[in-house]
Each structure stands twice: as C-alpha cells, then as structure tokens.
C-alpha cells in the first residue's frame, strides 16, 4: 500500500517544500518540470506514491518500457541529490547523480545512479541511468 500525501504535507522528494508547491503539480501532469533535477525529484515522488502514469509519461520514448509494474512492498523513504550537470532551463540535456533509499520485506536498501535527461519541445524526459564508478 502506498502512502497518502496531502497537499500541505512535506513533499516525499525531500526538498523541504510542501507537496502542493513542489512535486504535486508535476506528478499530476498539470505542469512540466522546469529542470532535470526537478523532474528527478518528481519521479522519485512518483515511485514513492506508486504513480506509474507519471513515470511512463516522463520517460523518453527511446528507452521507455511498454509497461511498468512497481513493487507495492517497496517503500521509498529518502532522496539525496549529490550532483547535477546541465539540466537547467536553457539546457537540452543534463545528468543528476542521486541516491534513493527504500525499505522492503528484505530490509533496507538503496539505489545510486547517474541519470541522464534530455529536453525536447520544452519538456524534460528521463533517458537512462547507470551506477556511478566505484
């Protein structure tokens, strides 16, 4: 079961902002993310809330899977952004280095990735990601 986040709750992305003023309008599809890092934050929030529609909508067509099934037993608990390259409002590509932490039946875990984003027709899309070099 996914958590319910109310408009005045803190956003799951960890920005410190309230949900309605942070990721909510982006996840709902009411607006697009102005930067690659904000898209990353909204995608983390979508994972935390089980919102596959937003994840697929913001996945670049060249790498987007046909379907996406999330594990309802995985609870995404924290997002840390370590670095951003490009990805600003005047860029067409960018990367975001992040670590996402989660809990599951198997215990605690984390996913660290350098995610690649592109902007097409004014909208940011997640392309792919790779684990950072050790």
Describe the overall structure:
With 134 residues, the protein is an alpha+beta fold. It has a single domain, classed as Nuclear Transport Factor 2, Chain: A. Helix content is 18%, strand content 34%. It has a four-stranded antiparallel beta sheet with strand order 1-2-3-4, covered by helices on one side. The model has no long low-confidence stretch (mean pLDDT 96).
Please give the domain count. Answer: 1
What is the strand tally? 4
Q: Could you tell me the radius of gyration in angstroms?
A: 14 Å
Largest beta sheet: strand ordering? 1-2-3-4
Oligomer: single chain
Major sheet, described briefly?
Answer: 4 strands, antiparallel
**Number of H/I helices:** 3
Helix/strand class? alpha+beta
Mean pLDDT: 96
**Beta-strand residue fraction:** 25-35%
Please give the CATH architecture. Answer: Roll
Q: Any low-confidence stretches, pLDDT <50, length ≥5?
A: none
The residue fraction in helices comes out at 10-25%
- Can you write the helix and strand succession as a string? HHHEEEE
Examine the coordinates and then state which fold CATH places here, giving the name of the CATH topology: Nuclear Transport Factor 2, Chain: A
Q: Just give the CATH class.
A: Alpha Beta
Distance between the termini: 34 Å
């Amino acid at each position: 079961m996914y958590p319910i986040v109310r408009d005045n709750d803190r956003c799951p992305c960890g920005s410190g902002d309230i949900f309605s003023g942070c990721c909510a309008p982006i996840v709902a599809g009411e607006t697009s993310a102005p930067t690659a890092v904000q898209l990353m934050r909204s995608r983390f929030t979508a994972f935390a809330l089980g919102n596959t529609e937003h994840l697929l909508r913001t996945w670049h067509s060249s790498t987007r899977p046909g379907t996406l099934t999330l594990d309802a037993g995985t609870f995404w608990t924290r997002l840390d952004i370590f670095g951003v390259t490009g990805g600003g409002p005047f860029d067409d590509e960018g990367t975001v280095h992040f670590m996402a932490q989660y809990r599951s039946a198997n215990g605690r875990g984390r996913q660290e990735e350098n995610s690649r984003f592109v902007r097409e027709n004014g909208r940011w899309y997640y392309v792919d990601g790779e684990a950072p070099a050790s």
